[in-house]
What we know:
Helix 1 (about 15-20) crosses helix 5 and helix 2 packs parallel to helix 3 (about 105-115). The chain has helices spanning about 15-20, 70-80, 105-115, 130-135, 150-160, and strands at about 1-5, 30-40, 40-50, 55-65, 65-70, 90-95, 120-125, 140-145. Helices cover about 30% and strands about 35% of the residues. An 8-stranded mixed beta sheet has the order 5-4-3-2-6-7-1-8, with helices on both faces.
Amino acid sequence: MHLFVTGGIGAGKSTILKRLLQMDARSVFGFVTEKGPVTASGRTISLRPAAGGEGRAIALCRSERDFETDTAALETFGIALLSGIPDGALVLMDELGFLESQSPAFCAQVLRLLDRNVTVLGAIKPLPLPFLDAVRGHPKVRVVPVTPQTREEAFAIAKGLFFEPSFSR
Length: 169
C-alpha cells in the first residue's frame, strides 16, 4: 500500500510525512520538493534527495500562473531519484503537483513505482490533472485529506493506515 496526504498550501502535508518518517527505521528513497527564496526573476523550485544531498532546480515560478518547468531536469535527476529502489523500500514523494505532471516520463516512473513492492509516502496537490488523478485512483493508494484545522486528526488517520498490518512493508 501507499499513503498520500492531500490539501492546500500550509495544511500540514509535509509535517505529517516527516512525523511518519521519524517512526520508521528504514532508509528513505525518493525526493522532497523545495521552494527557493524569491528573487527578482522569481522563485526556483527544486527536487532534493529524500535522504539528503544536493538538489536540482526543476522550475522557475515568476508568479502563481507564470512558471517555466525544466522537464529535462525531471527526466534526468527526478527519474534518477526514483530509480534503483530495492523491493520493500520506503519512498518519499513530497510532493506531486502541476510541475511534475509536465513530464510524461517522470509521471510514468511514479506510476511504475506504485505498482512495485515498495511503500510510498507522499503528498499530492488537490488538483484535477490526469496524472494526479491516476495517482489518487491507483488501487494501492490511500489518500488522507488534511487542512490546518484537521491536521492532528489527519495525522492519526495516516498513522493508523501506515502502521496497520495489511500495509505493505
